[in-house]
Amino acid sequence: MPNRNKLHIAPFNVEKIRKDFPILSHFVNKKPLVYFDNGATTHKPQQVISRIQKFYTFENSNIHRGVHALSRQATDVFENARKTVQQFINAAHSHEIIFTSGTTESINLVASSFGKKFITSGDEILISEMEHHSNILPWQMLCKEKGAILKVIPVLENGELNIDICKTLFSEKTKLLSITHVSNTLGSINPVKEIITLAHKYNVPVLLDGAQSVPHLKIDVQDLDCDFFCFSAHKMYGPTGIGVLYGKKKWLNELPPYQTGGGTIKTVSFNETEYADLPLKFEAGTPHIAGVVGLEEAIQYIENIGIKNISAYENLLLLYATEQLKKIIGLKIIGEAEKKAGVISFIIEGTHPFDIGTILDQQGIAVRTGHHCTQPLMQKFGISGTVRVSLALYNTKEEVDFLISGIQKAVKMLL
């Protein structure tokens, strides 16, 4: 069940917030859009859209190597955004922030570079049974290439990690643990600080997939003491195609470049190349400059509202939606961890998730159906997929009521 601790929040004007998002006035199938697919991507406030437009209209230039005014200005904007990200997740240094195309590339970067340097035959890598495919496949591929072993922390029936078994999986052969902070399918908030402390007792570095935690929770990488942290802008009201890899300085300095090319070097000759210092060592080619600018604006948008206010409001909405969904006969929620973020996955006896999703879409309601890129987790629960409702700061109680009504209509049509 969601966390039922009594919440005291500052006034949260969701109707005012909704006016910042132009797409929320959109109609789908001649119905007002009700958007509950925020786990896949969030919508963008006008502030973010306008900031990206401003960059392309008045500031557009390539960065770092130009001596002319526009290039210097664009470089300043880009590097200031890096500092904003640093402060947002409380990294110790701005050069610990590496810009990537998103969480998927961030994880692949670590798997490739860490794997080249530190993984050999017989080594072990730990992940969990609830991981997104993006946090399974890179490690699976690495293990096949290196002859390493992939070990999996199981999930309990309520959607929580089996911490007791987790404690038994570490050994002197364990080289890295890569785990999700918040499950994209179950909404479970994993006890990552406890797990990181355990891993560090074995000198095992930890990568956190933060794609689903950054929009909902306050992130402090120094307090968590994680070694790597990955997230995407588009899950937190920013643009697509841009994300972040945070890495502790000591690890990033040890890892070889993931990609090479312009911007990653100090000197090049046909005999030898000396690579640039952090963070440029990992940022080959022209980056998504406008995306970085949009990410910074999204961070400022979140901070203006307050992540604690967002989290508290979403938790109240999660509690309400959970209670209302449980009133529907035949509906079963998959994943009822004690601590959850704004995600509810469910199945309805005698129906297929795709059919439910299709009928909801006809009513203007957007949900996600399928395995949510977590096929091993679906196999764990013996199902092919779920209907997933994922919440954001602009969703409302009235929208939840409309969703419940829509599901009831779908059930009547299908059964």
Write up what this structure looks like:
- It is a single chain.
- With 415 residues, the chain is α/β, with parallel strands linked by helices.
- It has 2 domains: 14-44 and 306-414, Aspartate Aminotransferase, domain 1, CATH 3.90.1150.10; 49-303, Aspartate Aminotransferase, domain 2, CATH 3.40.640.10.
- Helix content is 39%, strand content 16%.
- The chain is built from 14 helices and 17 strands.
- The protein has helices spanning 14-18, 46-59, 69-89, 103-118, 137-146, 163-168, 192-201, 221-224, 249-254, 289-305, 307-325, 353-362, 375-381, 397-414, and strands spanning 27-28, 31-32, 34-35, 97-100, 124-128, 149-153, 174-180, 206-209, 228-232, 243-247, 265-268, 273-275, 331-334, 343-348, 365-366, 368-370, 386-390.
- The chain has a 7-stranded mixed sheet, sandwiched between helices. Strands 13-14-17-16 form a 4-stranded antiparallel sheet, covered by helices on one side. Strands 1-2 form a two-stranded antiparallel sheet.
- The longest helix has 21 residues, at 69-89.
- The chain is globular, with a radius of gyration of 22 Å.
- It starts with 13 loop residues before the first helix and ends with a helix.
- Residues 1-10 have low confidence and may be disordered.
